[in-house]
Amino acid sequence: MGSEADPLENLPKRHKCSACYRQYKKKEHLIEHMKTSYHSVHQPRCMVCKKHCKSFESLREHLIGPLAKGVCSAIFSKWGCQLCLTLFDSPASLDDHSETCHLSAPVPMGTSEVPYIDSHIDFLDSSDENNDDWRPRAIAMDCEMVGGGSDGSLELCGRICLVDEDENLIFHTYVKPQIPVTNYRYDITGLTEEHLRDGMPLKEVREKVLQILYNGESIGKARLDGGKARLVVGHDLAHDFDCLGMDYPYHLIRDTAKYRPLAKTNFASHSLKYLTRTYLGYEIQTGIHDPYEDCVSVMRLYKRMRDQIHENEGYGKLTPTDSIVGICDSWRSKELDNLTPDELYAISQPDYKCWCLDLKPKSVEA
């Protein structure tokens, strides 16, 4: 009696993406998927099944959402951190990790730990910035806006705060408005006419902020490769820069409202309140907004993203445009039909710069 043919042999071969595990009937469809997915080692990844996700929100749904994958969800529920989505080898290891991952809310400005002062500036030590392995330090910035114009909708900067990587207050002041304020938005800002009457003029504020951020570096040098200029961290920084009437080099901006891994599944922005609760484990903005609290929280988010350990791809400084052009060139230069899914993944690159690269010395990153 002859052996029966395996019925699976007659099924059409499917081409499976090595990163997100999507399957395609035709190789050309897989190739097109790889061109637009920008899979890389920098994408959030399930530590159980190793599937890549386009954002931490997608990974969160994969692990603990209403339609979470059964096996991954069951394992993660026992040994996974709900904040950073890391998997551990035992409940004891998870407990030890949770003590450092779940943070406490910052002490509000106005206490003995963070004095409540009208204006204050501390200049940062730059003595180590001549070293070849120097990397740019970060500063968090937050502005509180009041309203101008007939309907109070015109955004005016009423208060500004800058914090360094160690959560030290380096600059804080109230800002004297250039035009009359028609809505102090007291329920949110806590600001009154008395606060702003003797505030620092906006032009002087702008000069001091730029002095801190450029850190003695020329604007041309900073725009070219950063030089000694600082990274500026914030949430929806375009809004803050606009109200200050200033701009800053794009490659030196780290915006938690725009960072791809922190976005919603449709790539829209989350609020800073949501990001802080979800990734740091505490509540902010429960009443009047405290700019120091927001600065510390956004700095913690930045450092949590920056401290992720990823494999080194060695692609250097990428902008979204550079990465897309580079990928398209590589697709055209290879016989794609002859490449395996793993090989297609190997030549794929992200369309954003991962913040983990900020920890690499300039001499290595360049």
What does the model show?
The protein is built from 14 helices and 10 strands. Strands 3, 4, 5, 6, 7, 8, 9 and 10 form an 8-stranded mixed beta sheet that branches. It is 34% helix and 13% strand. The longest helix is centred in the last third of the chain and has 16 residues, at 291-306. With 366 residues, it is α/β, with parallel strands linked by helices.
Keywords:
two-stranded antiparallel sheet, alpha/beta, 34% helix, single chain, globular, 14 helices, eight-stranded mixed sheet
Distance between the termini: 68 Å
Order of helix and strand elements from N to C terminus: EEHHHHEEEEEHHEHHEHEHHHHH
Number of strands: 10
Helix content: 25-40%
Low-confidence stretches: 314-325
Class from helix and strand fractions: alpha/beta
Radius of gyration: 24 Å
Reported for the largest beta sheet, the result is:
8 strands, mixed
Strand content: 5-15%
Global shape: globular
Number of helices: 14
Q: Averaged pLDDT, please?
A: 86
